[in-house]
Amino acid sequence: MRIETRAVHAGRRVDPATHAVNTPLYLTSTFERDADGRYPLGFGYAREEHPNRAMLEECLASLEGGTDALAFSSGQAAATAIVQGLEPGDHVIAPEDVYYCWKKIFAEIFPKWTFAVDYADMTDPAAVAAAVRPSTRVIWVETPSNPLLRITPLAEIAAIGRKANAITICDSTFATPVLQRPLDRGIDMVVHSTTKYIGGHSDVVGGILITRHQNYLFERARKSQRFGGMIPSAFDCWLTMRGISTLPWRMRAHCANGMQVARFLESHPKVEIVHYPGLESHPGHAAAREQMDAFGGMMSFQIRGCQDKAMGVAARVRVFTRATSLGGPHSFIEHRASIEGPKTKTPPNLLRMSIGLEHPEDLIADLDQALESV
Ligand SMILES: *Cc1c(COP(=O)(O)O)cnc(C)c1O
If you measure from the C-alpha of residue 196 to the centroid of ligand 1, how many angstroms do you get, rounded to a whole number? Predict the structure, then answer.
């Protein structure tokens, strides 16, 4: 079945007790045992397994084309669970422009485990192959990347991982399973911050890890989730499922709006460059065409001039909201360099935008008036 149909049906069943069509929210921490001591439905204690979480995991495994999934309390909890499965001395290759909190996991939580981490240009498979060592266990990719929307060729990185006997993991948050399916290209596991498009309404924080096949890092992440307690609440799972039903149709609108806004900015005299993989001028355009069905709602642009000009545009918008995060109905604009801190490589004149579900002409008019006045 197609993804629109699976988004509505996968993981969902009419409630056997009441025939409620929509999934009930099971607010319980524990489940009754049979007289002979068994748990007949497999649910014993809510940290270890819970029906709302099981449904979310089944649904997202289906959308991503995986065999199993683990839901976490955030995207970062999913990443932390993977790192907890590594051994001291293991080597990891990650993108030089990886999500900025990801670096903090290694630098600020696990320095005592003496992992070796190399940050490589993932758009260049030769650079990734050159970074491989005998101790390489994980190759982490993020595509499209943040905030320059760089595109990593997934099939080529998957091949490097297979040869190196390393597990390849793709953070596919910007693309969602609607626009890109890394597992079909040989990547071993996918993570999403479900906080973003998958939840889709800026009302819940969550993460998911989906695997194509059984492997030791997935099983260790399951232990961190269940015994380490990195679990989402039942209500978080329920809200995320509610968001998923409309994901494929929301993505169509994000993509259409994104393309229109990118074209407008590309032709604006005050804009130096637009980073959107849907534009022919984007260096990752051909790779994006090859591995994505459409180009999404995330973009960034650099204004002619300095940081003050960029901050000035962000200060003057009226329809866009100045906020971090992405993937919700509201369009967001954000000056990234100032939240990423002094060590960031993000250009100071760059603004990142999550194009929401408003009318594209209202978004364009808003940017037009903001650009006019700086
Ligand atoms: C937001 C985000 C994360 C982190 O997810 P949280 O749910 O905030 O923990 C990781 N990767 C990308 C690409 C993100 O946008």
Answer: 8
CB-ligand 1 contact for 196 (6 Å cutoff):
yes
For 135-193, what is each residue's pLDDT tens digit? 999 999 999 999 999 999 999 999 999 999 999 999 999 999 999 999 999 999 999 99
Q: Which two tokens stand for residue 7?
A: 């988004």
Q: What is the tally of helices (H) and strands (E) in the chain?
A: 14, 12
From the CB of 173, is ligand 1 less than 6 Å away?
yes
Name all domains of the chain by residue range, CATH numbers in brackets: 3-244 (3.40.640.10), 248-371 (3.90.1150.10)
> 100-118 burial, b for 16+ CB within 10 Å, e for fewer?
bebeebbeeebeeeebebb
pLDDT one-digit tens code per residue, 9-44: 999 999 999 999 999 999 999 999 999 999 999 999
**Mutate-to-test residue for ligand 1 from 101, 146, 201, 354, highest number of ligand atoms within 8 A of CB:** 101
Ligand 1 within 6 A of 193 CB? yes
Query: Could you give phi then psi for residue 32, rounded to 5 degrees?
Result: -75, 140
- Our answer on whether the CB atom of 171 is closer than 6 Å to any ligand 1 atom is yes
Ligand 1 centroid from CA 75, angstroms? 5
Find out whether 147 and 182 touch, Cβ atoms under 8 Å. no
CB burial class (10 A; 0-12, 13-18, 19+) of residue 197?
Answer: buried
